[in-house]
Amino acid sequence: MARLRLTLVRRVECEVVVERGAVRELATLWRPDWEAAAVIGDDNVIALHGGRLRDLLAPVARKIAVLGFLPGEASKTRATKEDLEDRLLAGGFGRRSCIVALGGGVSLDLAGFVAATYLRGVAHVNVPTTLTAQVDAGIGGKTGVDTSFGKNLVGAFHQPVAVVVDPELLETLPAGERRNGLAEMVKTAVVADEELFSWMEGHTPALAAPNPLDAHAIARCVEAKCGVVRDDETETGRRAVLNFGHTIGHAIESASSFAIPHGVAVAMGMVVEARLAVALTGLPEEHARRVETLISKLGLTPFPRVPFEAVRPFLAADKKNRAGEVRVALPARIGVMARTPGGEWTHVATPQRIEEAYARHLR
Ligand SMILES: NC(=O)c1ccc[n+]([C@@H]2O[C@H](COP(=O)([O-])OP(=O)(O)OC[C@H]3O[C@@H](n4cnc5c(N)ncnc54)[C@H](O)[C@@H]3O)[C@@H](O)[C@H]2O)c1
Ligand SMILES: [Zn+2]
User: Fold this and answer.
1) How far apart are the first and last CA of the chain?
2) Is there a single domain that holds both residue 127 and residue 239?
3) Distance of CA 129 from the midpoint of ligand 1 (Å)
4) Ligand 1 centroid to residue 355 C-alpha, Å
5) Tell me: the pLDDT tens digits for 311-358?
6) How many helices (H) and strands (E) does the chain have?
7) pTM of the model
8) Residue 185 and residue 321 in one domain
9) How confident is the model at residue 230 (pLDDT cuts 50, 70, 90)?
């Protein structure tokens, strides 16, 4: 078991429990001043786990509501948020409510954002149920929704009081969703944990399906992400390293009108960005090859074909860009991200260099 306490700059404490069966501890994390619980998740996760959460909370919460919404990224909008808020208001949920965000990143981002603004902010607890959410979205306090102008453009930093990471919840996860999470796991290992990367290389067949080893790998990712977030809670500097693979990945995702799953797009992005790192930050060629091999052994290849011409316009729109330059978070070696001589965590990559790396390695 791993139990971490993430104490953040604003002195908010967030308890993170990673353990098989951890969800059974939900009641022990309940605070005496909370009166009501609102479990919020998409209809799939509510159907799978909503009833169980209601039973687990029944001994500690005086009032419980379980609120679902249509599954999928298309629901991560201000409209769904408003609908959830109206349902909470109609149900008489007051300041002493705790929102229990249950599900993948969509549910957590949305329910966390509801918690951030409902009655000017109420407590929330995250119970991530996808691998992506257990290693990434559930940790760090970024909440928000998408708009027609782009993804995650409206939101808030709002730390959960606790995050309950139970790898057993992954047993019902479809294989494609698992692969998306494995890509994020590779990202975390490249960014901050060389040992985890080597461990993953030694466990590729087992990692393809849910297994008892998950708890170890997930705990390492959670620890690594907590380390980065602790340093930079509101993403003014170092937290940008978590975007490894994502500059190119997001552009690929957008170019495919989101037909390519996020994890696959990020895996493609990591392959290209590792090659940029060989050229720009001295990543050993051998490390770039290890990244490619691991991605392929985890079942993320063969990659779909996306011509660079389709990707180029979306690169120009990346949030990290400044003054029209494309900025990328790049490793110096596996487990260590590179800084510029000026101390910055993102590096300028010219469109020509990106195109060259893209054309050679994604075809
Ligand atoms: N806040 C952050 O720091 C952060 C980090 C990474 C990603 N995100 C966000 O997360 C979202 C992606 O998250 P995701 O990949 O978890 O997608 P998701 O929440 O849409 O979940 C994927 C699918 O799996 C289903 N599902 C969830 N848990 C299940 C389970 N245990 N068994 C069976 N099915 C299950 C869901 O109903 C959904 O259909 C994106 O919106 C992204 O922007 C946020
Ligand atoms: Zn991601």
Assistant:
1) 43
2) no
3) 8
4) 30
5) 999 997 766 666 668 999 999 999 999 999 999 999 999 989 999 999
6) 15, 13
7) 0.94
8) yes
9) confident
**Helix or strand (DSSP H, E) at 331:** strand 331-333
Q: Pick from 139, 172, 205: which residue ends a domain? A: 172
Beta carbon of 169 within 6 Å of any ligand 1 atom: yes
Q: Render pLDDT for 124-148 as a digit per residue (tens, 0 to 9).
A: 999 999 999 999 999 999 999 999 9
Catalytic (active-site) positions? 120, 142, 184, 225, 235, 239, 243, 246, 250, 262
pLDDT in tens, 69-126: 999 999 999 999 999 999 999 999 999 999 999 999 999 999 999 999 999 999 999 9
d(CA 18, CA 14): 13
- Residue ending a domain, among 132, 152, 172, is 172
Label each residue of 52-77 as H, E or C. HHHHHHCCCCCEEEEEEECCCHHHCC
Residues 278 and 231 in one domain: yes
Range of the domain at 355: 175-361
Q: Look up the CATH number of the domain holding residue 332.
A: 1.20.1090.10
How does strand 36-42 pair with strand 2-7?
unpaired
State whether the beta carbon of 214 lies less than 6 angstroms from ligand 1. Answer: no
Indicate whether 163 and 194 sit together in one domain: no
d(CA 19, ligand 1 centre) in Å: 20
Together in a domain, 145 and 225: no
Residue 246 CA to ligand 2 center (angstroms) comes to 7
243 lines ligand 1 (CB under 6 A): no
Please name the residue whose Cα sits nearest to atom 13 of ligand 1: 105
- The verdict on 154 and 217 lying in the same domain is no
